[in-house]
Specification:
By secondary structure, the protein is α/β, with parallel strands linked by helices. It contains nine helices and 13 strands. Strand 3 (75-81) and strand 4 (84-90) form a beta hairpin. The longest helix has 34 residues, at 259-292. The N and C termini lie far apart (68 Å).
């Protein structure tokens, strides 16, 4: 299942200052011999995945409706400009009726077979006050499906960032606390060791996809902390794409069964061997008991 690569018309919709910066970032990728970049967008439903895809492309490429269920299948949007191609893969939400939607994960894996993921955006909302067990389960499910290595090629995108925290908290304090609690959940859910996480931390970017986002004098969308968020998001995507870690190839083996299944299969001969020796020892003990009691076998 591919995608038609179209000329990136939406690029012209960005303010001139943003266009200039984006060209600079994409040139950096081309210098590293990356003429194509594939970005996978994952997260729960209703967190703003599709809206973030539309903001990145500068066009309404994925339908977003507050009154309609989101897409049930992954969609890949491909745009090309000046010899550089960006592929962004939007996906269905990973939670259904209070449980991790493993069917959605299987669909996503099937769609991604033989594709290489350069960057994964894990999307959630900034304007949420707590992290719960479901967040940990979603992280665990992603890690089991794609390997925990995917987190070293990922960034955390927190949407709905044009947001006023409760009176007693500053914007910086709230966004920092929210980010830290989600990063802690990613580390725990993916079982990433502290030193690994420090070496390749998951960067955090804030996003505001709605039309009410404030703008600066250059007409660029800015957050309450003054950050020009679209160019900051693209810069961070570029940084992750070019870090020292390998991109994630989704091969057939990964699609057929997660890593834990492979480990389990390797243990089967060992378990059978142990069971065989236990049975032999029990048989020997029974024979010895019969012998010492003086009864014939």
């Amino acid at each position: 299942m591919g995608s038609i690569v179209r000329e990136w018309v939406g690029f012209q919709q960005f303010p001139a200052a943003t266009q200039e910066k984006l060209v600079e970032f994409f040139s950096k990728l081309k210098q590293k011999n990356m003429n194509t970049m594939t970005v996978l967008v994952l997260g729960k439903g209703g967190v703003g995945k599709s809206s973030t895809v539309n903001s990145l492309i500068g066009e309404q490429v994925v339908r977003v409706s507050p009154f309609q269920a989101e897409g049930l299948r992954p969609v890949m949007v491909s745009r090309t400009m000046g010899g550089f191609t960006i592929n962004i893969i939007d996906t269905p939400g990973l939670v259904e009726a209070g449980y991790v939607n493993h069917q959605a994960l299987e669909l996503i894996k099937g769609f991604l077979v033989n594709k290489t993921i350069d960057v994964m955006l894990y999307v959630d909302r900034l304007d949420v006050y707590r992290v719960d067990e479901m967040d940990k389960q979603v992280v665990r499910a992603i890690s089991q499906s794609f390997g925990k290595e995917i987190w070293s090629k990922s960034l955390l995108v927190l949407t709905h960032a044009q947001f006023s925290p409760p009176d007693e908290l500053s914007y910086e304090a709230f966004s920092s606390t929210r980010s830290e609690s989600l990063l802690k959940t990613i580390r725990a859910g993916a079982k990433i060791r502290k030193h690994e996480f420090e070496e390749f931390p998951v960067p955090v970017v804030f996003a505001e996809n709605s039309g009410r986002c404030n703008k600066n004098e250059k007409e660029e969308k800015v957050l309450p902390n003054g950050e020009v968020w679209i160019q900051n998001l693209v810069k961070t995507i570029t940084d992750v794409a070019t870090n020292q870690k390998k991109a994630i190839l989704i091969d057939q083996k990964m699609v057929d069964g997660s890593y834990s299944d492979d480990r389990g299969k390797k243990l089967i001969p060992l378990i059978i061997g142990v069971q065989y020796f236990i049975v032999k020892m029990i048989q020997k003990a029974i024979r010895n008991d019969i012998r010492t009691s003086g009864r014939p076998l």
